[in-house]
């Protein structure tokens, strides 16, 4: 539905969670994210038809970041809307263009040093969310503007942290920030609003400044990919909650390492801190590896903790 002038928000199921996608429609038509493998043909094109537009009206598919549920539909889009250019940040191009590489380098990155690799089923599940390889037509850096029509321009901003090349769109006309996964709160909800999984930011050193950058825009409306739309006071409250979670994760890691007598592996840290950080289901706890890896890296660099090896696995202790 059109939730703000020219901004359409489309909800689709994503497993037990929801995925929200956005279409900006004026003289130009911009789709933000292509969803999973068949989202464009099954959801986006039928939606456009309902508002009286054909698939050939899509000028640009702006991919917010390299995750399966955000660009997995690129091949489907290319088939149904061949005129649409596909764009993403230059730092995410390599993963967006190559789903197999994304699975190996992002989703399976905890395999070798942490013994937390994907099972064959998980690997097939992740790969199955995306279609075939599709080239990115336009690499962006953030700072670009799109002229949507005579009196409407929107801005593209670089907000890294969840991936290195995460992009968002700011619409000054509606004072709306379409941030996708740039800030992830303290727990990602399922479609019913129950805790589903931990926030999977990866690089706290850029995630925090990105959230502050969004906060400084002082948006009236905050549109994410997995949370219901937020407005007014909810916006800054959510951003504060996102910032606060990052601080809690760092404190939880340091406190776990201080309490233990020996070194801890990634899995041991997750088992120790997960229940104090959130009420997501136990099977979602391994997703904490994404933020933890970022924090452990930073804490090691700052020499507050020390990395070692135990039985072939990476482990850490207080320095
Ligand atoms: Zn994501």
Could you walk me through the main structural features you see in this protein, from its secondary elements to its overall organization?
- Helix 8 packs antiparallel against helix 9, helix 9 crosses helix 10 and helix 9 packs across helix 11.
- 36% of the residues lie in helices and 26% in strands.
- The chain has 11 helices and 18 strands.
- By secondary structure, it is of the alpha+beta class.
- It folds into 2 domains: 240 residues, Metallo-beta-lactamase, Chain A, CATH 3.60.15.10; 61 residues, Arc Repressor Mutant, subunit A.
- The strands form 4 sheets. Strands 1-2-3-4-5-6-7 form a 7-stranded mixed beta sheet, with helices on one face. A 6-stranded mixed beta sheet has the order 8-9-10-11-14-15, covered by helices on one side. Strands 16-18-17 form a 3-stranded antiparallel beta sheet.
- The longest helix is centred in the C-terminal third of the chain and has 27 residues.
- A hairpin with a 2-residue loop joins strand 2 and strand 3.
- The radius of gyration is 20 Å and the shape is globular.
- The model has no long low-confidence stretch (mean pLDDT 96).
């Amino acid at each position: 539905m059109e939730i703000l002038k020219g901004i359409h928000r489309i909800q689709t199921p994503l497993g037990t969670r929801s995925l929200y996608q956005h279409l900006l429609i004026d003289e130009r038509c911009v789709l933000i994210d292509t969803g999973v493998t068949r989202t464009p043909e099954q959801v986006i094109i039928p939606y456009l038809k309902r508002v009286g537009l054909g698939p050939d009206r899509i000028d640009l598919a702006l991919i917010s970041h390299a995750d399966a549920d955000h660009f997995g539909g690129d091949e489907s889009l290319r088939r149904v809307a061949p005129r649409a250019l596909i764009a993403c940040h230059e730092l995410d191009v390599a993963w967006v263009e190559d789903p197999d590489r994304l699975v190996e380098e992002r989703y399976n990155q905890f395999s070798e040093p942490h013994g937390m690799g994907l099972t064959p089923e998980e690997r097939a599940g992740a790969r199955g969310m995306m279609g075939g390889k599709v080239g990115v037509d336009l690499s962006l850096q953030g700072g670009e503007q799109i002229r949507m029509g005579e009196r409407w321009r929107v801005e593209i901003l670089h907000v890294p942290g969840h991936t290195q090349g995460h992009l968002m769109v700011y619409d000054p006309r509606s004072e709306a920030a379409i941030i996708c996964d740039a800030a992830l709160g303290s727990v990602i909800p399922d479609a019913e609003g129950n805790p589903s999984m931990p926030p999977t930011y990866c690089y706290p050193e850029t995630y925090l400044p990105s959230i502050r950058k969004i906060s400084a825009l002082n948006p009236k409306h905050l549109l994410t990919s997995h949370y219901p739309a937020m407005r007014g006071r909810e916006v800054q409250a959510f951003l504060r909650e996102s910032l606060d979670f990052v601080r809690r994760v760092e404190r939880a890691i340091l406190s776990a390492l201080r309490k233990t007598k020996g070194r801890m592996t990634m899995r041991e840290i997750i088992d120790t801190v997960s229940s104090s950080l959130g009420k997501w289901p136990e099977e979602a706890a391994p997703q904490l590896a994404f933020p933890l890896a970022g924090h452990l890296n930073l804490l090691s660099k700052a020499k507050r903790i020390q990395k070692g090896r135990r039985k072939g696995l990476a482990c850490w202790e207080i320095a």
